[in-house]
Write a structure and sequence with these properties.
3-stranded antiparallel beta sheet; 2 domains; disordered C terminus; alpha+beta
Length: 313
């Protein structure tokens, strides 16, 4: 009987304790975070140890070009961001949305300083939304708000910038080209389909939600057949469209996100982005229909990036 008990104890030890002795301890998952140090240097850290440093101190002040006057003003980066955020997003938005806007705007600014150094002679960035990102002076911003809301709104903007000081978005330890938009029309687009080139690996097609209440979510452009042909001939004099043919106009291909990649007008194939520019559409996310003498383009507004207007999709 004693031997039987002993054998059972040995069996339990072998089954349960021996594997534990030889099991390797799994490493802890490290989470990368970006935080400012006391001297305003951004540090990419993990929960356990510092990985590398990002020298935020180099960009604590920037040179801002005021496009209307041609004046170049040296300003503190985060003070500048208060003016940007208050111009780009309504102050009554959720504080977390405003913080996200501050981080994106800071990232966009630093990327522009590093990669577009010669974009504005003598300046790092300008105050025009059609070129860089929107900017409004504190005085003008306050005057556009209701008097009873002015102090509260401005303090909220300052709070969202201060609580994200030093935080930027990086890819491979470098600031990303942080395009941002008001509405994506339900799906974002990869830059390759808009501007060509090699694209940005960190900007991909993703579905978005909650944009249905956006006041400029959709639009419509109506052109007569004559007006359409005249606009196209401004760019392509040899273009011909026989509207008696069934496929006089035809969408040949769409992108993965549903935007028009290629459309045929008579004897010419145009990209959706080029068509958008020529016809004054707000997006390459459009459909068309022919109604007697009219060509109707139904458009969903997308990708209103803070970027040169001619480059927006």
């Amino acid at each position: 009987m004693r031997k039987l008990i002993l054998y059972i104890l040995i069996f339990i030890f072998i089954c349960f304790f021996i594997p534990i002795l030889f099991t390797k301890k799994m490493p802890k998952t490290e989470e990368t975070i970006t935080t400012p140090s006391e001297d305003n240097t951004i540090q990419d850290q993990t929960v356990e140890a510092k990985i590398n440093e990002y020298n935020y101190q180099d960009y604590s002040t920037i040179k801002l070009l005021h496009t209307k006057t041609g004046e170049i003003e040296e300003v503190n980066l985060d003070e500048y961001l208060c003016n940007v955020v208050s111009a780009e997003m309504p102050a009554d938005y959720n504080i977390e949305a405003l913080k996200a806007q501050a981080i994106v705007a800071r990232t966009y600014t630093i990327y522009t300083i590093i990669h577009n150094a010669n974009k504005h002679e003598g300046a790092n960035i300008c105050d025009s939304s059609s070129c860089c990102q929107a900017w409004i002076s504190k005085e003008d911003r306050l005057n556009r708000w209701e008097e009873s809301k002015r102090e509260e709104n401005w303090n909220k903007i300052v709070q969202c910038v201060n609580e994200t000081i030093g935080q930027i978005i990086t890819y491979n330890d470098e600031p990303i080209n942080a395009f941002f938009h008001a509405s994506s029309g339900g799906t974002t687009e990869i830059p390759l389909n808009v501007w060509g080139g090699s694209g940005y690996p960190y900007l991909q097609v993703v579905e978005t939600a909650g944009e249905e209440g956006y006041s400029q979510y959709s639009s419509q452009v109506v052109l007569t057949k004559e007006e359409l042909l005249a606009k196209l001939k401004e760019k392509y004099q040899d273009i011909e469209i026989n509207f008696d043919q069934e496929n006089a106009i035809q969408i040949i291909e769409n992108t993965e996100s549903g935007r028009v990649r290629t459309i045929k007008f008579g004897n010419k194939n145009l990209s959706g982005v080029e068509t958008r520019t020529i016809l004054g559409l707000k997006s390459a996310n459009f459909t068309y229909r022919i109604d007697n003498d009219n060509i109707i383009f139904d458009v969903i507004r997308i990708w209103t990036w803070s970027w040169n207007e001619s480059n927006r999709s």
